[in-house]
Structures are given as C-alpha cells and as structure tokens.
Write a structure and sequence with these properties.
Blueprint (H helix, E strand, L loop, with lengths): L10 E5 L5 E7 L4 E8 L14 E3 L7 E3 L3 E3 L2 H5 L7 E3 L9 E10 L5 E7 H9 L4 E5 L7 E7 L5 E3 L6 E8 H68 L5 H7 L8 E5 L2 E4 L3 H25 L1
Parallel strand pairs: 4-12
Antiparallel strand pairs: 1-2, 2-3, 4-5, 6-7, 8-12, 8-13, 9-11, 10-11, 10-13, 14-15
Helix pairs in contact: 4-5
C-alpha cells in the first residue's frame, strides 16, 4: 500500500511479468504517462539473488558471496553464475552441543516473518535462545533500539551495504565457531602482553646497563685521579731523591769545615771531600729527616 502526499498527482505502480516494478506519472504537457521510477535498480535488487545465507554486493565482480562462517553449497554452480543453491554452514548447528550468536553488520536485513514491537534487544535475544529453530534476531527500530525481529530456518535476500550503512543482525552459530573467534582474541591478548613484557624487560636491562656503565666510569675517574696523585707523589719523591736537601752544618762538620786536608780531588763542580762512615750516616739521617718535613709541609699547605 502507498498514499500520495499530493493527491492532485496521478500515478500508477505496475509490476511487469519479468518482476520489474514501474512507477508511472501523468505528464500534463504531453498528455501521457511517463516512466518516473522503476526497480530493481541493479542486479542485487532482485529477490533472493544469492540464495540462502548468501549476500549480494554490487561492488564485487562476482556479486554473490557467502556470509562469514558459511560456504557455497555447490561451488560448481557458483562458478558459472548460478547462485540459486546459496550457502550452507561450515559447521553444522546442534543445539545439544552448545551455540551462541555472531554479529554481522552493514547489511540489508533478510526477509523476516515475525516481529515484536514491545521487546528490546536483550528480550529478543532471550526469546530466540529458547527456540533452537530461531536462526537470527535483531532490533526492529534501529533508530530507537526497540522492537524485535526474529528469523527461523533460512536467511534469504541479504545485501551488503556500504561501510557505516545498513543494519546489524545476530545469527545463531555452533559453539565451536564462536570459540575460534574468542581463541583468536585471547591469542591476541597474550601476544600483546608478551610484547609489553619483553619491552619492559628490555627497558629495565637498558637502565641497569646504563647504571653499571656510569658506576664504572666513576670508578675509572676515581682511579685516574688516584693514579695522578700517586704519580705526582712519586714524581715528588723522585725529585727529592734527585735533588736532596743536605744540612749545611752536617756537611761542615763532616768535612772539618771544608778542610784542605780532606780534599780527595777536584771535579767539574768543585772539590770532592772525604768523610768517615759515621759522619756520612749522620748526613743521610739529617737529609731523610728534612725530606719528611718537606712532605708534611706540602700536605698541610697544599
């Protein structure tokens, strides 16, 4: 049934023998009926083009395809463009072995036979669960999210809508089909968790290695500073040995105040005097004492 908004317009809707509906309107100027609208507009508008559980998509080279978790009933017929046989389940449905519902989106809903306006989507699911013959369910009014549509046995006349268009439907599936989907999700969660764990471990190892390097550098710097101090100390001692400071009074006494009688000979730097062992020991003891005093003064002043 249809009603005209503008009753002054004369129109006719005529179904032809090949299944095409033509809308005719009266053209006052030409005094004739003109073709205003006809359908189907494309091959997917033909009723049941892809058979049971098949979906028509005008964007594909092969317009018919099976819904996910379904397969062609007769691949040989489909290869020659005969889609009448439709699709069958990949896993047969047995309510005694468990089942659930899988969501399909962006489709034109199949032909339906039962509707309940007073139900919501959750009540619709509960009602469908009670009857094993219930194949699928969805909401009646998608804009309000209210009402219930139920399907029994086969689903026919489904069309794929563009992304973001069409409606959604929940189709009863064997429990094993749902388990594979959940298993993939679980596997994905495990993989993601492992990636994060490995990443955290690598980050922790990097921080530990960095800290060890910094401590090693600090120890090396400390050793380098210590080596410099030791080197400077050794150099200082070396200088003390190379240029000893000998007490003047001790040398005067040992040489009998530089007596001519104690001269052994003369070199490039002046005369060479002889001394006794006791006098030499006294000179060396005095020299050692003075070297120690110099070392203490250097520590106190700098």
């Amino acid at each position: 049934m249809y009603n005209l908004v503008n009753t002054s317009i004369f129109t006719r809707l005529v179904p032809t023998q090949n299944g095409v509906a033509v809308r005719w309107t009266w053209a006052e100027k030409s005094k004739n009926l003109v073709d205003f609208l006809n359908g189907p507009t494309d091959i997917c508008d033909n009723y049941g083009k892809c058979g049971k559980f098949g979906s028509c998509n005008i964007a594909n080279a092969e317009v018919c395809e099976c819904l996910k978790k379904f397969k062609t009933k007769s691949p040989k017929d489909w290869n020659v463009g005969d889609f009448f046989g439709g699709c069958v389940r990949e896993t047969s449905l047995d309510c005694q072995k468990g089942y659930g519902f899988l969501e399909y989106s962006n489709i034109k809903l199949p032909e339906s036979c039962r509707s309940y306006e007073s139900m919501n989507l959750k009540d619709c699911e509960i009602l469908c669960l009670k009857k094993c013959s219930c194949t699928a369910y969805t909401t009646l009014d998608i804009s309000k999210g209210s009402g219930c549509l139920l399907w029994f046995d086969k689903l026919i006349d489904i069309r794929q809508a563009p992304e973001g268009g069409g409606q959604f439907i929940y189709i009863r599936m064997a429990a094993s089909e749902l388990g594979g989907s959940k298993g993939k999700k679980k596997e994905t969660v495990i993989i993601v968790s492992l990636i994060f764990s490995v990443g955290a471990l690598m980050l922790g190892l990097s921080l530990i290695i960095n800290m060890l390097k910094q401590n090693k550098n600090k120890r090396q710097e400390g050793r380098f500073t210590l080596d410099i101090e030791q080197f400077q100390s050794k150099e200082s001692q070396k200088e003390d040995l190379e240029l000893p400071l000998i007490d003047l009074l001790a040398t005067e006494k040992a040489t009998n105040y530089y007596s001519v009688n104690n001269i052994l000979g003369e070199g490039g730097f002046g005369p060479v005097y002889q001394v006794t062992l006791s006098e030499l020991k006294h000179i060396l003891d005095t020299t050692t004492f003075l070297a120690q005093m110099r070392s203490r003064n250097s520590m106190l002043h700098g």
